[in-house]
Amino acid sequence: MQAKTPSDSITILTDMVLPGETNPLNNLFGGELLARMDRAASIAARRHSRRICVTASVNNVAFNKSIPLGSVVTIEAKVSRTFRTSLEIFIDVWIEDRESGEKIKANEAIYTFVAVDETGRPVEVPVIIPETELEKSRYDAALRRKQLSLVLAGKLAPSEATELKALFI
Ligand SMILES: CC(=O)SCCNC(=O)CCNC(=O)[C@H](O)C(C)(C)COP(=O)(O)OP(=O)(O)OC[C@H]1O[C@@H](n2cnc3c(N)ncnc32)[C@H](O)[C@@H]1OP(=O)(O)O
Q1: Are 81 and 87 within 8 A, CB to CB?
Q2: Residue 151 burial by CB count (10 A; 0-12/13-18/19+): exposed, middle or buried?
Q3: Which atom of ligand 1 is nearest to the CA of 153?
Q4: How many CA atoms does the CB half-sphere of 119 hold within 13 Å?
Q5: What's in the GO CC field (predicted)?
Q6: Shortest CA distance to 78 belongs to which of 14, 6, 127?
Q7: ipTM score assigned to the predicted complex
Q8: Furthest-apart CA pair in the chain: how many Å?
Q9: pLDDT digits (tens, 9 = 90+) for 41-55
């Protein structure tokens, strides 16, 4: 399988926040943002693997900034690292200042997808080669995040999480 770069999977969704998508403070409902990010990440995973990809875990979501009604929201998803059958997707969320058009970072998230065949069985994905400094640093930290996710899911014994142990030794 031919290696790919993060820019091969880049997926950008731009949309507006409508009244039916807000909480009582008139900010974008968290679950709505999660769904939009899942959609963008799913497309990025598919662009990298050219396979059906299912969400395996949501590793991190930081709701750092509320997103008011009427905001123009841009979600950018890119594959940050691949393993054998799983892919880590990094998602950055921006809102646009109405008057200046300036992009303000609102949130970020990290999802893990698994490529599967038509029967739902995991299949191998192409390797990824990070290019920019940011892509390289996200790539380098991804194994640590994968191990943490597997430990929290009860799929990896903490004693086997070598990358996590290395942080404390
Ligand atoms: C787009 C959508 O919303 S899809 C709907 C929501 N998602 C789903 O319905 C998925 C339901 N879950 C599943 O189908 C399965 O649990 C799968 C396909 C995710 C994993 O299947 P498993 O039988 O656990 O397969 P297996 O143990 O071989 O793991 C496959 C890969 O997933 C990784 N993985 C599994 N669980 C996790 C987790 N919680 N966190 C990180 N990685 C995980 C494994 O480490 C492995 O990665 P690797 O091959 O790259 O090393």
Answers
A1: yes
A2: middle
A3: 39
A4: 2
A5: cytoplasm
A6: 6
A7: 0.94
A8: 53
A9: 999 999 999 999 999
CATH number, domain containing residue 27: 3.10.129.10
SS3 56: strand
- Tell me if 144 is assigned to some domain: no
Evaluate: CB of 35 within 6 angstroms of ligand 1: no
Pocket flag, ligand 1, residue 147 (CB < 6 Å): no
Is residue 139 domain-resident?
A: no
- Name the closest-CA residue to atom 9, ligand 1: 54
Tell me the C-alpha distance between 44 and 113, whole Å. 10
**What is the average pLDDT across 102-126?**
97
> How does pLDDT run across 21-77, given as a tens digit for each residue?
999 999 999 999 999 999 999 999 999 999 999 999 998 898 889 999 999 999 999
Asked if residue 62 is part of any domain, the answer here is yes
- The reply to whether the predicted model has a pTM over 0.90 is yes
Domain tally, the chain: 1
Q: Is residue 157 part of a domain?
A: no
